């Protein structure tokens, strides 16, 4: 799902402002804990009058921000199948553009028009959970079908609040033919990456494609590095900074991330800020550029363009040895709204996502990184298979296993990343101090 890890150019501070004074609401009597169970553990759906098998049809709404048409089509097919299997229940997808998603969700929740299912990663919506808007899924039998590793990203204070559809991560996509023609091996260290970049530049090839006309690709530059080795060494970094216990300047690994990012950004690709993400992607495919720093959402686009066999992937070199750490976390998750009037019926959608059948339906075309490594590799895109190989043989870190920035902290950090990319001077220490000052201002204001 496009721009989901970078996800995130929106300001969640609006949501925090709305829910900051709310107390946690109690689950309705029809909640998951009181749902009648069938022999296989799934919930029996009831109509609005509370009777089973009645004539009145109920509607379960799924609020999402899937950007790719293939993803929307897959969701529609899944909902059609669920309607066929569950007479009396209609599943309605409400797709919202990502740029407006949080604002519209906030409005719906405030106006008492909450959807039944909300697409989103629990740790990005921890404020909604604190305010009692998201129902815990702990104890649901279908969670046994989801890997414990992927559920770590869905868990807050010991409770599971979402079921993921796939994994998400960022790294470097590369043109295989360009690498081969120029005799360049996949770099394992930052120094090797810079040497390869210089070789491409000398050959008249842009080392990296930059689509900074869209704001979010600039965030990938830091995050593809940060979410691996640095957070593996400092798993509580975001929590410690947000609480005021520490600041970014206290983490030498973070400074190294920013310096490496500055080094990579020193290789320009022409009109960086006049080029959008689609044009940058095309530069990589046609060999005008050798590499593109981005995330898993690109894979579906490469497949649609018939280029997924021409493009490879490797982890951004970010460690102090030749084993870079790839940051991977659960993504594309769906949560149950605590204000839903049809929780038992809504759970049928989440339950289906956890089944092998649902996972296979979701990953049509093999574009998604599976939550489980026990998958038929023949169904995966070659790019996805390379990522799975890193999971099996390399080093990965679940960057959402611990707390992450939320609200104004998150939006400020992301804006800072874009500003850093746009500043050709990129004074590392100056920018880290600037970031720490901005974080302190949020803490002082109490937002």
From TrEMBL:
Belongs to the bacterial solute-binding protein 1 family. This is Raffinose/stachyose/melibiose transport system substrate-binding protein. Transmembrane segments: none annotated. InterPro entries: Bact_solute-bd_prot1, SBP. Gene3D superfamilies: Periplasmic binding protein-like II. SUPFAM superfamilies: Periplasmic binding protein-like II. The keyword Protein biosynthesis does not apply. PANTHER family: ARABINOSE-BINDING PROTEIN-RELATED, OSMOPROTECTIVE COMPOUNDS-BINDING PROTEIN GGTB. It holds the Pfam family SBP_bac_1. Keywords: Signal, Transport. Residues 1-24 form the signal peptide. Residues 31-44 have a biased composition (Polar residues).
